[in-house]
Sequence to fold (337 residues):
Amino acid sequence: MSKYILAIETSCDETAASIIKDGTEIVSNIVSSQIESHKRFGGVVPEIASRHHVEQMTLVIEECLKQANLTPAELTAVAVTEGPGLVGALLIGINAAKAFAFAHGLPIVPVHHIAGHIYANNLVQPMEFPLLALVVSGGHTELVYMKEHGHFELIGETRDDAAGEAYDKVARVLNLPYPGGPHIDRLAHEAEEAVPFPRVWLEADSYDFSFSGLKSAVINYKHNMDQRGEEIVPAAVAKGFQDSVVEVLTAKTLRAAEEYKVKQVIAAGGVAANKGLRTSLEATFKERNIPFYVPPLKLCTDNAAMIGAAGHYVYEAGIRGDMKMNGKPGLELDSWK
Ligand code: KG4
Ligand code: ZN
Fold:
């Protein structure tokens, strides 16, 4: 019999619910974005995020069931993001999951947000192991090695800013709206030239990343130009910045894929929506004959389908949450196998 998981995601600024069949098929997928409300503050305001989640959560779950044409009695479990994320935002989703599970006698399944981003790929292309995932989002930049479902080995991570965070901060310097990633991506593609910025490689054998130096280089460049009374060319700055990020992410992912001899490389997280990064990774892995996949844009940024995709395997592993579940803002990505 098929298994239907209702998944809930509220870790940041999207209120989302989805129903996933057997871990791989999207039956319905609803995302209510709050981006418009946070734009004028230039970033996510936690209190506003929580308030929006409270207002939207029930409606989003109802719409999700309606579009799936399923009743709660036909569901197998409720999966919910346990962390990491904003604690107040996480709690709204967790409490909704608890209430729904209690009312309908369903088990709760706790899901790690980053496991979700990685499993978004399984909705498009079956994951094959061993696998390497490049996770690039607003809060994370990580290289994760997986031997099998539920096994996660962190082989590299950012030592300071996440890639998405650097994108958003550089976008502010260029007076672009929040979230800045897509705007920088667009400008970079319109650019005729690139301002040269450094590449930060760290130690030769390290799979770690660092983006704060690059961010400072962009800020300093803008300051110097301002002081000289010269206008910057935003597209050239965007391209210079993006070229640096993409080159480092691509090179380190390739080196790790070859060292770990993986069967598949995947990209995940909001920054995996970046056209420059997608093109660079696709070309690089095609040349090396290593299968590379990245989910469609709407499954790269935050959504609940990915939580349902991972939640299916967490459920199969027998892991359950309970009525004492809490939001865990700094939750580590531990293996469940
Ligand atoms: O995964 P996500 O939706 O939320 C987190 O879990 O953080 O990622 C959001 C991040 C933001 O920093 C946003 O600027 C970035 O993803 N982003 C992009 C693009 N689309 C979204 N960054 C670069 N290029 C894009 N096209
Ligand atoms: Zn995310």
About this structure: Residues 137 and 269 are 5 Å apart (CA to CA). The radius of gyration is 20 Å.
